[in-house]
Amino acid sequence: MNFRPCIDIHDGKVKQIVGGALNDSSAGETNFVSETDSSFYAEMYRSRSLSGGHIILLNKAGTPEYEADLSEARLAMSTYPGGFMIGGGVTAENAKSFIDMGGSHVIVTSYVFRDGVIDMERLTKLRDIVGKEHLVLDLSCRRKDDKYYIVTDRWQKFTDVTVGNDTLDKLAEYCDEYLIHAVDVEGKKGGCDTELLALLGEWDKLPITYAGGVASFDDLSKVKTLGKGHIDVTIGSALSLFGGDMDLDDILTFMKQ
Known about the structure:
Helices cover 30% and strands 25% of the residues. The protein is an alpha/beta fold.
């Protein structure tokens, strides 16, 4: 299990927002707004050789706020070239520009999962443009009727696609790894989604990064145990960098145990 750093950007600022609360008209409940820019966090991660992290642009593409997010993302990636994956507003038309900007991968959800299903034509086109080795699929999900459904459009819209072995197997030939937020617990610092972790722990053909609810070292132990050691983890609101109680260096020490 590895720790994956994160930088979430909204209205051109580094923030932590409660999962599922964000929509086109409101940022919902915000846990943290940074007084420093993204280069501060990028340098902290770079100095500790923490790669494979993700930058998420939270505003809607095509808006002035999204352009402000992009500017902040460029700053982080210029500070730590190749250290981050980037997602938010990625399409086949602009995906290569994010790689040229310094991203190791692009992260995609809504462009590929639309009208409730997987758009295989779009997915294939995207893979062909950036290469499987530069593509991460965000399968962030919410629970409904005892199943986990992939959600899109800043986690507001349910698709008809469930997270499970069949979906993970089907998509594995198109991407390098998966990013999966447990949206129902994301940003709430109330504990991780143990049932989702147990489900993900049964599949190990590609790297998976889990996000959502981790607020203590007991939670990290659950990720390690239920994920059978091969599920990586990212922590947002609970990290002391973002106003929480968990110290980054203490987490990295835990990871070595």
